């Protein structure tokens, strides 16, 4: 199959700054990809790298798109190197999506426009909502609760541990006991701090009827300290989820082979080839939690499709939708006009 290929870089500002142990993040840079097959059917894809997380940079992704010819084939798509995992995802999901996008009308013309024709592929999905870091979490959870969220994620390893433990205690006391809380350190703790967090969580779980369930701590230690996380996972009742350590499929397979049987956070947007992820998940039963990379509705559609196919558990998926960017719909429409 031959496809006409077009792409368009974008830049969007988050409604609220995202704070992690890596610092502040205000702007999401990405690339929208459009493939048109010989019969005129269109497929949309999104490349949304996070280089500090282990994917290629936006510049590398742009260089790759720029050197491609105006017509590409399946072979082009399936031979994108592993060094460009966000590109593998963007192109492969665009290719898989050819013909699956809805018709709409913009300015009186009928178009295959970049909105999914199916609603969310997970009608009964439970989504997790990201709380703001620090004390702001204490004022924010309630409006998210009213929107229907029951699982929350709070970033730790951003401020001094003593301050965060105080806020955590307040947060745990305020959140309804039927809610779930995930803590995400983004690799920002040292071994002692990770022990202290896990110990605190275990203690809190001794009073389960009074407190929310602490579902897991995500990536407590830096990627290089895999043995430390393996050890910690055997010492506490509170679970550990690997995230940065399993950013790409190659890393995920390496952690699995080194004996990790805890939770794997899968960010489809940067993991690499969706078809190879599918194959791995079908051959190996892993406990996966799917999560966003703050992509637009285009990348989200493909990521949720994969989550629907591959997650075989009760865990909420980390796509706090509709509160990261403003005016998604308008943005998508204007984007269509330029492609
Ligand atoms: O996983 C979620 O619940 C939301 C997404 C999220 O936290 C995230 C989004 C972009 C980059 C890194 C991360 C992260 O999990 O560390
Ligand atoms: Mg994380």
UniProtKB/TrEMBL annotation:
UniProt catalytic activity: (1R,6R)-6-hydroxy-2-succinyl-cyclohexa-2,4-diene-1-carboxylate = 2-succinylbenzoate + H2O
NCBIfam families found in the cross-reference section: menC_gam_Gplu, PRK02714.1
Name of the protein this chain belongs to: o-succinylbenzoate synthase
Gene name of the encoded protein: menC
Function in brief: Converts 2-succinyl-6-hydroxy-2,4-cyclohexadiene-1-carboxylate (SHCHC) to 2-succinylbenzoate (OSB).
Family: Belongs to the mandelate racemase/muconate lactonizing enzyme family. MenC type 1 subfamily.
Any matching Pfam family: MenC_N
Binding positions for Mg(2+) per the UniProt entry: 184, 218, 243
Essential cofactor(s): a divalent metal cation
């Amino acid at each position: 199959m031959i496809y006409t290929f077009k792409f368009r870089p974008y830049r969007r500002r988050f409604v609220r700054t995202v704070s992690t142990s890596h610092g502040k993040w205000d702007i999401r840079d990405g690339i929208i990809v459009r493939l048109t097959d010989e019969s005129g059917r269109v497929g949309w894809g999104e490349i949304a790298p996070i280089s500090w997380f282990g994917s290629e940079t936006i510049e590398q992704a742009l260089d790759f798109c720029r050197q491609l010819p105006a017509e590409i084939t399946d072979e082009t798509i399936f031979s994108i190197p592993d060094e460009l995992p966000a590109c593998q995802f963007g192109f492969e999901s665009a290719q898989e999506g050819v013909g699956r996008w809805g018709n709409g009308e913009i300015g009186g013309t009928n178009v295959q426009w970049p909105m999914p024709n199916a609603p969310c592929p997970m009608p009964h999905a439970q989504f997790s909502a990201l709380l703001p870091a620090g004390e702001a979490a204490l004022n924010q959870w309630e409006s998210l609760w009213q929107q229907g969220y029951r699982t929350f994620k709070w970033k730790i390893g951003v401020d001094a541990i003593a301050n965060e433990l105080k806020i955590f205690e307040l947060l745990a006391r305020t959140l309804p006991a039927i809610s779930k809380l995930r803590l995400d350190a983004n690799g920002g703790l040292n071994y002692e701090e990770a022990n202290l967090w896990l110990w605190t969580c275990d203690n809190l779980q001794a009073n389960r009827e009074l407190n929310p369930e602490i579902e897991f701590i995500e990536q407590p230690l830096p990627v290089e300290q895999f043995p430390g996380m393996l050890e910690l996972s055997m010492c506490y009742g509170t679970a550990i989820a690997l995230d940065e350590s399993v950013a790409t499929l190659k890393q995920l397979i390496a952690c699995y082979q080194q004996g990790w049987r805890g939770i794997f956070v899968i960010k489809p947007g940067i993991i690499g080839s969706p078809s190879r992820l599918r194959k791995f998940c079908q051959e190996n039963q892993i406990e996966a939690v799917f999560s966003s990379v703050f992509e637009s509705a285009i990348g989200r559609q493909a990521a949720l499709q994969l989550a629907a196919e591959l997650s075989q558990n009760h865990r909420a998926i980390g796509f706090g939708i509709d509160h990261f960017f403003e005016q998604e719909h308008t943005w998508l429409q204007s984007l269509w006009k330029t492609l």
